[in-house]
TrEMBL record, chain A:
It comes from the Bacteria. SMART domains: HTH_ASNC (SM00344). Residues 64-137 form the Transcription regulator AsnC/Lrp ligand binding domain. It holds the Pfam family HTH_24. InterPro entries: Dimeric_a/b-barrel, HTH-Siroheme_Decarb, Tscrpt_reg_AsnC-like, Tscrpt_reg_AsnC/Lrp_C, WH-like_DNA-bd_sf, WH_DNA-bd_sf. It comes from Clostridium homopropionicum DSM 5847. SUPFAM superfamilies: Dimeric alpha+beta barrel, Winged helix' DNA-binding domain. This is Leucine-responsive transcriptional regulator.
């Protein structure tokens, strides 16, 4: 049944009818499966991948390495929760290696992101240190290359 | 001098491809969705392209040995073993060719000439007949039947065999029908052939594109091993059509004979492509899995779509073609395709382009994006609903 997930992970715009045709299932089966995935929090959202750089909207993205002290009895999860609940935080991952959390923050300007780091993030009791890296350009995100043209340039040949 | 008279009659008399006119039309037309071209829409996976580029950077720009790099032949040998339980020695049983097509050509040139007969099941890839005719041998066509799902049956084969038969071509998974032959069905063919002095040319270029069960090679039957030449290659499996990489495997005597022609005509397959092919065999199973999965989804969409239009369409289990019957529309294959192209800007190929028995059918290739396929199905449905109006 994971085939449905693989299909909509690539393109969530497919209709249930189309997914049914692709998987050889009935529309009702597809509907039921998707409903179940949503209920079980396996499908957690349907966001759209947008190349904001081609719009007039100004935005700045930063990847922040965060070292934290895990809280007694709560481990990293509670610490992470305090951080990822800020709406500025777009992604938050627990890491192995040299630091603990990757926090991806989006703001309207560098100043806004810097303020968030200095006033909201660094001031958290459990945060030991942060290292902020600003994203200069997105080449590829979620498996999609942003500037790639998909033009069919196959020539007419008889085979 | 009449220059036309200088051309050999069997070349001169070869009719030009009947579908040339379609290509001429689409060159003048915008926004055509082509389900006509028989090649993957995917670009060659990056690791394979990168290996080709790297070989150029390192200056690997010389000939390889005639049969192809030994490393590549060894990798082909391992691949055939792990995929299809076929045992071929890299030393003298594998010839790297310029696409599967060259393998077909040199095999026929090594085996047949005037007076010999080559059995060709149709509908099938047009090169079998062409290459046979160019050798001076006589093609003997078996008309495969829709009711058999275009599989080769022992009865049809038996009827076609004469004392002059030297080669039988076994083209499965099949272009243009998408038909495959499972082990049981091949076993029945083996029964017919095992005691006869006939070489089998088994074109398995679409082997990896098998959607139900596993591909079975006729060469995996012990009694057929020595009398079969297996043709395979990288074009369809790894989306490498433009690299022109194929190979032929068989008994050392057969491969040696083919190598003689190959070394005079071609020298060796392109070196850059050989390096890329090596990477393909070593590190691209995941890429192949992904592509096959995607083809399979498109296949289901196409079968579902054509059947909902009321066309009789058996389920193709291999390659990337659908071969629906359009007789119910009252149009010939040619009329159907030409009208569809002019009215709805969809290119598909008339079935009779692959043999006379393909009349009444059309070939639609689903090596095209899912978006294109949904759009094409919509337009074909609209076209069919207006026929006769």
């Amino acid at each position: 049944m994971e085939e449905i997930l693989e299909i909509i992970e690539k393109n969530s715009k497919y209709t249930e009818k189309e997914i049914a045709a692709m998987t050889g299932k009935t529309v009702e089966e597809v509907q039921a499966a998707i409903k179940k995935y949503e209920e079980d929090n396996i499908i957690v959202g349907y966001p759209t991948l947008i190349n904001w750089e081609r719009t007039s909207k100004e935005s700045v993205i930063a990847l922040i390495e965060v070292k934290v002290t895990p809280q007694r009895g709560e481990g990293f999860d509670k610490v992470a929760e305090r951080i990822y609940k800020f709406p500025e935080v777009k992604s938050c991952y627990l890491m192995s290696g040299g630091f603990d959390l990757t926090v991806i923050v989006e703001g309207k300007s560098m100043k806004e992101v810097a303020l968030f780091v200095s006033e909201r993030l660094s001031t958290q009791e459990c945060v030991l240190s942060t290292a902020t890296h600003f994203v200069l350009k997105k080449y590829k995100d979620k498996g999609t290359i942003f500037e790639e043209k998909t033009r069919d340039d196959r020539e007419a040949i008889f085979i | 001098m009449i220059i036309e008279d200088m051309i050999l009659s069997n070349v001169r008399n070869m009719p030009p491809s009947g579908i040339r006119k379609y290509f001429d039309i689409i060159n003048e037309m915008k926004d055509v969705i082509s389900l006509g071209v028989g090649e993957p829409d995917f670009v060659t996976p990056w690791n394979i392209r990168e290996a080709g580029i790297y070989s150029l950077e390192k200056g690997h720009t010389h000939y390889s040995s005639n049969a192809g790099f030994i490393e590549l032949r060894e990798e082909i040998s391992r691949y055939l073993k792990r995929k299809y339980s076929l045992d071929y020695s890299a030393d003298n049983q594998i010839l790297v060719t310029v696409g599967g097509s060259e393998g077909i050509d040199v095999a026929l040139r090594a085996l047949v000439g005037p007076g010999d007969e080559v059995i060709i099941p149709e509908p099938s890839f047009v090169a079998y007949k062409g290459c046979t005719v160019f050798t001076g041998a006589t093609p003997v066509v078996i008309n495969l039947r829709h009711e058999d799902e275009f599989k080769l049956t022992p009865e049809l084969l038996e009827k076609a065999i004469t004392p002059k038969t030297k080669v039988v071509i076994i083209p499965f998974p099949n272009n243009p029908t998408g038909a495959i032959m499972n082990r049981e069905e091949l076993a029945a063919i083996v029964e017919v052939l095992k005691d006869k002095d006939i070489i089998v040319l088994s074109d398995e270029i679409y082997a990896e594109l098998t959607y139900e069960g596993e591909h079975v090679s006729i060469a995996s039957f012990p009694e057929m091993k020595d009398k079969t030449i297996v043709i395979n290659g990288f074009s369809k499996t790894y989306a490498m059509t433009g690299w022109r990489m194929g190979y032929a495997c068989g008994h050392p005597v057969l491969i040696d004979a083919m190598k003689k022609i190959h070394q005079y005509a071609i020298m060796c397959a392109p070196t850059t492509a050989q390096y890329a092919a090596l990477e393909a065999l070593k590190n691209s199973d995941n890429n192949v899995d992904e592509m096959v999965k995607e083809y399979n989804r498109r296949r289901r969409v196409m079968v579902d779509g054509f059947r909902k239009m009321g066309l009789d369409c058996f389920e193709p289990k291999g390659a990337f073609y659908l071969f629906p019957c359009i007789k119910s529309t009252g149009l010939s294959s040619d009329e159907f395709c030409e009208k569809l192209l002019l009215k709805e800007k969809i290119l598909i190929i008339p079935g009779n382009a692959f043999g006379d028995c393909g009349e009444g059918f059309v070939r639609a290739c689903y090596a095209s994006s899912m978006g294109n396929i949904f759009e094409a199905l919509k337009r074909i449905e609209r076209f069919i609903s207006t026929i006769g109006n």
